[in-house]
Amino acid sequence: MADSRLAPLELTAHEQTTLQGWASRRSTAQGPALRARIVLECARGGSNLAVAARLGIARGTVTKWRARFLAARLDGLSDEPRPGVPRTITDAQVEQVVVMTLENAPKGETHWSKRQLAARIGISPNSVARIWKAFGLQPWKTETFKISPDPLLIDKIRDVVGLYLAQPANAVVFSVDEKPQIQALQRSAPVLPMMPGVPERRSFDYVRHGTVDLFAALDIATGTVVGKVTALHTADDFRDFLADLDAIVPTGLDVHVICDNLSAHKAPAVQRWIVAHPRFTLHFTPTYSAWLNQVERWFAELQRRCLERGEFCSVEQLTTALQDWIAVWNDNARPFVWKKTADQIIDRICHYCSRISGPAH
């Protein structure tokens, strides 16, 4: 009599398709994906030991699920009921937790706490927390948003994103903005350095020694940054910064500048300069859409890695720190990769608008 451990499993077309679908999923180490792969390998032939070697698992695991499949086919690959305390929370209570979290609030308050909701429904606070986690509900958390009212929203998104995804030939594209009012802050007491088990500690109060503004132009192709520290960020300062870019960019290349809708960017002095330098083209992001300007991502790195924990005793020291950090960045510059197309962004905005424009709003 042939050894059943060596004979390939015979699968129907339905079983083959179902098992391949399960095998493509992500699951735990002993989840349905692994069980499906075991059966599919057994269908290829070979002993339990050979299948275990191909999958890198124990032979006992292959033996178990081969036998389960032979006994009950696909149904044998599901988990059997496990012993334990019977379930005490009903489906109606789970639904009540979800509905009340989404549609109601305690009298005089803005949202439920787990203890308040647990007392109202008659279950434990931990049960409410588990239900919230299962349904992805976080009533204590909030985020802000702003839908741009720009009448040229779609055109501007397509214009800016088009520059990110397909840079024009014989041209340089800069993402430009200014970071105003950067403060030269000195803590009122010396910073206590980090030690094992103890983070760096600093006093909450500080002495301010003045402020500076930083103009930055991010080359989206290379990731390098041209920076200029100024006392203000007026239209004349922005015009002078454009002149600095003009001196840096090789002759013969067009220059595309992506910027926001700050009044200084559209002032007559800037417009006259642009007319006198036809190789420069300004591209404006939609109003309230700074997230579309890549240099904002660079400013976030500057804030996190240089300014947030910096200690500056004077404006001069702050200026030197900014210039040094830009130099270090440029030594290891990498461009930020933009992946979303204009259509994907517009579809996302349209979907969100449809959600907030229903009868409930």
Automatic annotation (TrEMBL):
Protein name according to UniProt: IS630 family transposase
Highest taxon of source: Bacteria
InterPro entries reported in the protein's UniProt record: Homeodomain-like_sf (IPR009057), MscS-like_channel (IPR052702), RNaseH-like_sf (IPR012337), RNaseH_sf (IPR036397), Tc1-like_DDE_dom (IPR038717), Transpos_IS630-like (IPR047655)
Domain (Tc1-like transposase DDE): residue spans on this chain: 192-318
SUPFAM superfamilies found in the cross-reference section: Homeodomain-like, Ribonuclease H-like
